[in-house]
Every structure is written in structure tokens, then in C-alpha cells.
Amino acid sequence: MKIVTIIGARPQFIKAAAVSRAIDEHNRLTPDTAPFTNDASPMASNPLPITEVLVHTGQHYDEDMSAIFFRELEIPEPAYNLGIGSGTHGQQTGEMLAAIEKVLIVEKPDWVIVYGDTNSTLAGALAAAKLHIPIAHVEAGLRSFNRLMPEEINRIVADHLSHLLLCPSQIAVNNLTNEGISKGVTIVGDVMADALQFAVNKVQHNIDIKEKFHLQHGTYLLTTIHRAENTDNKERLQSIINALNSLEETIVLPIHPRTRKILNGMNCRMKPHIRIIDPVGYFGMIALENSARMILTDSGGIQKEAYWLKVPCITLRNETEWVETVENGWNKLTGANPTAIIDAVHNFKPPTEQAALYGNGQAASRVLQEITNYIERK
Ligand code: UD1
Ligand code: UDP
């Protein structure tokens, strides 16, 4: 069986690495003698080895937004790097669509896997759908119910085009049911939990935050900001910066290039307790999250990592797709409101107990099981 995996943005390298490891494991357990044929039906359950063809759209391209993840997570060099780079949504997605289509015509895969909700996800799903190639969407069913977010458009379209909708939670399944999608919908858990389990071991052995970042455990806040709704709205961004400036604790801010460019343009003054650093690799980031007293973020992935690592999280957005983290009392939505942010930094206290959320770290092998066992239900 041949799978084309479409990736392009930082969190997708992390998610896809978990599934690539599961593919390696599947192939290790699949006898070499199993017949391999390219035209094996993708619809039949079979124990064939899986050939994965990695396609990097080039949406993220800086060393610390892309290559570092390939090195750390031992992801093989992509078979195709489309080098699309940055652009407006239409231009970027359109160029990806044309380039991915060419690859799919050559590779003729049995499946295309897309991850999450970026423009690379949208382009991959559209290109595959037009060529009648079955699509597996990992992290299906998430909704913010805010169609001003580019991600919301991407995930709705990707879900409606997909044959397998691999969901992290029951709420994601319910969201799909409400949109009339039930065929091919399954809860597999979250591949980011698999990724975190893989990282935690490496981090414990290799990363000392005192040595690497000159920080002490539990003595700082960790912040990330990159969502369009915060960066492209100067008032919101300035409100968040005002809140951070008025705090006294050390704040570590690994800065997304998008945010750096916009802050430079705004000539925004940051007080010295805010330590802006370049984006860090995955293992460094997990180490920083694990030792933070609290995390302030607008990232999707980091809200979940905060939960799993039992670090209180303040989400700098008005809504979240990861509502279970809020319902369980470990995540607080403050939007960009400075009073709410400052109050949460001082007073937000999650409960001592925590429910297990988003699977048990075996989501990647469940993804493969679903793909290899897929039988089209008429
Ligand atoms: C994208 C995703 C977002 C995801 C995020 C993960 C979309 C619509 N958004 O947002 O869902 O949460 O990735 O990080 O797909 N840039 C660089 N170097 C890079 C990459 C980006 O300088 O390597 C700068 C460029 O100025 C670019 C801007 O960042 O225009 C935004 O990059 P883009 O990939 O379009 O969106 P993200 O904000 O990264
Ligand atoms: N991340 C990282 N280095 C950083 C910032 C984030 O490795 O400097 C990791 C983070 O731990 C998480 C993922 O990138 O696993 C989240 O990506 P991001 O916040 O860019 O996107 P989102 O999850 O919001 O789509």
C-alpha cells in the first residue's frame, strides 16, 4: 500500500513523525514475504507493507520552523519539497494545489494523509479529492465555530472531503455528526499525545533547562503568539503585550517569525522581564513547557501539551477547539483582554485531579489500523 503524506507547517512535522514511526513498526512486523503490489485495493484489509511518500509543501521553511524537526524527530528527507513558501491564502493554497496534484498523478497513492488545519491540509485534501484518491484526515472534527479563522475553513473543507475522519475526541465526532458526517468517522485519540510520550523520554535524558536556557524549574511563564486573529489585529496584539509588560515574572517567548515581523513593524516596546528567543526545536519546547509555572498561548498544540504535562494554561483566544481542557479546569480562555490575562496569571488554579484526554498515546497505530482495515461502506 502506498500512502502520500502531506505536511508543511511545524505542528504537522511533529504529528506526521508519530505516524511515520508507526509505519516503520507496521513494516517491521509485516513479513517480508507478503506480496507487494501497487494496485492492491485500498479498500481491503491486508497486511501489506506500507510505502510512505513524504511531501513537504514548504509552507514553513526557516531552519528553526522546519529542518530542526526533521533532524530531532528523525524524519527522513521528504521525497518532494515543493518549496511553496509564504503568500496570501489564495496564492499559497493555489500553488500548493497545483504542485501536489502533479505529485499525486506521478505517485498514484492508495491514500493521502493530511493533518490538522493548515493551508497545506486544505491543498492536500483538495488535490486528492479531485483525483479520487481516498483521504485520511488526522485531527478531524475540531471546530472553533469562528469562520474568521483561516484554520476553521481549512478543517471544514478537509473534513467534508475525507473518507476517514480520525478524531481525537467524542466532541469532535459530535461536531461532525452535526454537519451530517458519520461515514468513516472514528475516535483514534491524538497523535500529539504519541509525540509527547516519545519526546518526554528524550527530554528527561538530554535537556537541562538550567544549562540550555538558564532557567529554573517553575519560575517563569512561557508564552507563544502566532494566530492571525492576534497578530494581524494590532489592537489585540498590543493588548497582549501590555498585559505581558505589566507582569513581573520572567516570561520566555519563543517567537514565531510571523509575530517577530509584525512586532518589529509596530516598534513595540517590551520590558526586560520578557525574554524573546528564536523558535525552539520540539524537545527544547517540551522542556520549556514542562518547567513553566504557567503557559500563555494561542497555539492549539500547546494547549494540549500543557494539559498532559499538568501545567496551567491561559489561552489568548476567545474560543478553543480543545474545549475539554477548559471543561476540566486546566485551561482558561482570556482572549486578548489585559485585565483577564493578568488576573488569570495571578489567580488561575486548576484542580488537583485530571481526567485522561485525547487517547493513550497509541493514536498513530490506530490511524494505520483504520487505513489498512478500511472498507468503503456504501
Ligand atoms: C500556520 C497555520 C496555522 C498553524 C501554524 C503553525 C495556516 C492558515 N495557518 O500559520 O494554522 O497554527 O502554521 O505554526 O496554514 N514565516 C517565516 N518563516 C517560516 C514560516 C513562516 O518567516 O518558515 C512567516 C512569513 O512571513 C509568513 C508568516 O510567517 O507569511 C505566516 O506563515 P504561514 O505559514 O502562512 O502561517 P502561520 O502563521 O505559520
Ligand atoms: N513548538 C516548538 N517550538 C516552538 C513553538 C512550538 O516545537 O518554538 C511546538 C509545540 O510544542 C507544539 C507545536 O509546535 O508541539 C505547536 O505548533 P504551533 O503552535 O506552531 O501550531 P498550532 O498547534 O497552533 O497549529
Please, could you describe this protein's structure?
This protein is α/β, with parallel strands linked by helices and 378 residues long. It has 2 domains: 2-190 and 360-377, Rossmann fold, CATH 3.40.50.2000; 201-347, 3-Layer(aba) Sandwich (Rossmann fold), CATH 3.40.50. The chain contains 16 helices and 13 strands. The chain has helices at 10-29, 63-72, 89-107, 119-130, 150-161, 170-178, 191-206, 209-213, 228-231, 234-245, 257-266, 282-291, 300-308, 323-327, 338-347, 363-372; strands spanning 2-7, 51-56, 80-81, 111-115, 135-138, 164-167, 185-187, 220-224, 250-254, 274-277, 294-297, 313-315, 331-333. The strands form 2 sheets. A 7-stranded parallel sheet has the order 3-2-1-4-5-6-7, with helices on both faces. Strands 10-9-8-11-12-13 form a 6-stranded parallel sheet, sandwiched between helices. Helix 4 packs parallel to helix 5 (150-161) and helix 7 (191-206) packs across helix 12. The protein is globular and about 60 Å long. The two termini are 22 Å apart. Bound molecules: uridine-diphosphate-N-acetylglucosamine and uridine-5'-diphosphate (UDP).
Protein topology:
Elements: E1 2-7, H1 10-29, E2 51-56, H2 63-72, E3 80-81, H3 89-107, E4 111-115, H4 119-130, E5 135-138, H5 150-161, E6 164-167, H6 170-178, E7 185-187, H7 191-206, H8 209-213, E8 220-224, H9 228-231, H10 234-245, E9 250-254, H11 257-266, E10 274-277, H12 282-291, E11 294-297, H13 300-308, E12 313-315, H14 323-327, E13 331-333, H15 338-347, H16 363-372
Parallel strand pairs: 1-2, 1-4, 2-3, 4-5, 5-6, 6-7, 8-9, 8-11, 9-10, 11-12, 12-13
Helix pairs in contact: 1-2, 1-7, 1-16, 3-4, 4-5, 7-12, 10-15
